[in-house]
Amino acid sequence: MAAPDARPPGPEELLEGSAGPVLRSLLTHAGLGLAVWDTELRCVWANDVLTRYDGIPREQRLGLPPHASLSGDAAALESTLREVLDTGACVIGRPYRVPVGQGDRRPRFLAATALRLDDPDGRPLGVALLVLDVRSGRGVQDRLAVVSEAGARIGTTLDIVRTAQELADFTVPLLADYVTVDLTEAVRLGGEPLERLGTADGRVPTFRRAGVASVHDGAPESLWASGEAVYVPEASPFVRVLHTGRPLLEPHIDTSPGTWLDHDPARAEKIRRFGMHSLLIVPLQARGLLMGVMVLVRADNPAPFDDGDRLLAEEIAARAALSLDNARRYTRERTAALTLQRSLLPRRVDGGDAMEVAAHYVPADAEYSAGGDWFDVFGLSGGRLALVVGDVVGHGIAAAAAMGRLRTAIRTLADLDLPPAELLTRLDRASVHLVEADEADAECCSVGATCVYAVYDPAARTCTVALAGHPPPAVSGADGSLGFPDLPHGTPLGYGLPPCEAAVLELPPGGLIALYSDGLVEDRRHDIDVGMERVRRALDRAGRDSSLTELCTAVVDTLPRAPEDDVTLLLARAR
Prior knowledge:
Elements: H1 11-14, H2 20-29, E1 33-38, E2 43-46, H3 48-54, H4 66-69, H5 74-87, E3 91-98, E4 108-118, E5 124-132, H6 140-153, H7 160-171, E6 178-183, E7 203-214, E8 229-233, H8 237-244, E9 248-250, H9 265-274, E10 278-286, E11 289-298, H10 307-344, E12 355-362, E13 371-379, E14 385-395, H11 397-414, H12 420-437, E15 449-457, E16 462-468, E17 474-476, E18 482-483, E19 502-506, E20 512-516, H13 528-542, H14 548-556, E21 567-574
Helix pairs in contact: 6-10, 7-10, 10-11, 11-12, 13-14
């Protein structure tokens, strides 16, 4: 019996036993590619079948990690092997593609299986990779497997540029040596509108580059970086694809005089320099909108594009175009909502002679980042000052629009010089009427909002506060200590429930009051009391000598991560 700390036998040693000849025949002559890595993910053994699949000699694998000892999408495969080694759960039939090798016309599509190797006591010895060429040619099942993988790896976020780059990365070296994703103004990427840019050497600005990938580091084939305008001749195949909406396959690029390349010398020079010989341009269109083109080029790969490549590229492009359109719609919605919200919020807050004030707003890191948070500061009769923070349920344009209507309603009611409790009670009734008026339009119907309304009277040195389902403000007392007074909580707006009540708090000169939205203190992992205590400590630590702007920054910086909801903070200090 071996000592507990004895080194476990390696694959070569296992082949020396009585069953060695049988195992050696199975592992070296069967049509099964096999490699083994130790617990440090160093290759300790590989057979020659794997070399036939990816062209890497056995000696060049030994001692190296998977990303350096495999071909194709080796980095992704290394992540799979590491996960198998860590968890012990095997992965069966993972799609594995390797680029075109010598004598091949197209990349190989293989099935990879990874399993952990354990000793009799269950301790991991390493991880094995088994690769099998289970298909011949590129049939329907091949395309389905690749398109399915494209769906998993393209469109992982709602960011247009990242989605375009994922498309470019996925197709290199799967289909091409160099790929660009160029988008029209239908997908705005910022910058000066293309129609305002002048022509250059007879070329017109038609696209903006959103993604580029190459088998060469840094994509030296590219004339433009991501985000830059792409100029093309009006008679080029790129414009033809835009006009027809159909792909263009040019198995052999014609560089002879008299072609469209005469009007694009910079591109012609790149074609000659890198030996580009085959071109495929695929439109990116979804839901009836043509958003741009994917340009695929072969140079190092000697095989020209064929109809099989065109069909696969079209299917990948169709899947990616849906993700691009989703990102485009999201970006448009988010931009509109943020623009609306920011146009409704005060550009700056001014407490006049009564108070020093400062505000801070942070949009949520959520699917629809613009929400219904708002704040406001305005003067009342008798030198008094009104402070407001509110939060409409939901996100997006509907929430921002509802926020704007509530903010306007508060201003209107404040002109009637109503006490805070009565103002919120009337605001609740107005919210009910607004909801009833919008019942026919579900998108505009936003039920539920919370609000805190405070009125500071510098003559009496008091602050009258009313809450409508909103968390209580933090207030500093006469001794400078901060706390959260026990106030009547009230009910959220928009439900027509019992009227609000108010409380009068003392606020001496230098006294501080902090109004905020629940996004500052709520966290799914902790109770709201934890967040309120975090805010109190941050205000205490900053000290009385800090400016309110510094105090706002100090409080917001205590957020544990990107906020799940909008964060609004309004600080006011009695002069």
